[in-house]
Structure formats: C-alpha cells, structure tokens
Amino acid sequence: MADWAFVALGSNLGDRSAYLAFARERLAALPGTTLVAASAIEETAPLGPVPQGPYLNQMVLLSTELEPRALLEACAAIEQSAGRTREARWGPRTLDLDLVRYDDLEIAEPTLMVPHPQLPRRPFWQRELAELWPHAQSR
Prior knowledge:
The protein has 139 residues and is of the alpha+beta class. It has a single domain (3-137), classed as 7,8-Dihydro-6-hydroxymethylpterin-pyrophosphokinase HPPK (Alpha-Beta Plaits, 2-Layer Sandwich). The protein is 30% helix and 29% strand. It contains 3 helices and 7 strands, in the order E-H-E-E-E-H-E-E-E-H. The chain has helices at residues 16-28, 68-81, 123-137; strands at 3-11, 33-38, 42-44, 55-64, 96-102, 107-109, 112-114. Strands 1, 2, 3, 4 and 5 form a 5-stranded antiparallel β-sheet that branches. The chain is globular and about 45 Å long. The model has no long low-confidence stretch (mean pLDDT 92).
C-alpha cells in the first residue's frame, strides 16, 4: 500500500514558476508515485544570512510506494537535473525539494529527518500542509 508524503518545493533563481512545474512533473513521474494534490503557490522572503531574492514556495502531497530514503534521493536528483548547486548553505537555488512529512513516521538519521526539523519554524509550510491535509484524510 502506498504512503503519503508531503514535499515542499521552493525556487528563487531563474523562472521560478517553471522550476516548480518541473518539480511537480518529475515527482509525479517517480515509480509507484502519484501527485495527489498541490497547495497554492506563495512568495516568501528568503531564510538565512545570505542576501538573495524572494522564493516561490509550494507543497505537494504524493501517494508513493518509495521508501523515505529513496524519495529523498529522488528529490536530490530532481534538484540536480534543474541545475541546483550546493555552494552556500541557505543560499539561492533553482530548485529546493524538502521531504516535510512521510505518513506518521518519525525518522532521526544524520541525513534524513522526518518530520522535517524546520517545519515548526516555517509558517508557509504549515499553511501549505494544512491546505493539503484534507486530501490525505480522504484515503
């Protein structure tokens, strides 16, 4: 049986809307994965100490048979295919994909933390998650 995964999308370089669309398409094409719903897109101020432009943010709800680690690795591959480079922590990016929640799992590993540890500090994620939650409850 497939699990629910909430993935946050963000972009603040180039054609931000196109990068979000690219991410939605690529996530929906992952093996054993269906994009169930997408939140509204909102513009937010950048986080962290690096000066940069505003982000477009969105969250998607996936029904997926991928395990959390495999989904996280797929997200990194999608970021890379969109030209993402990791030069500065909290720096600007073409595409950022974060695994925010995965069903009710709690995972605390050095490279995989679910729910995402920044969830309590990102009001826009909380709004987007609340928008998508009814879709997850309908199963």
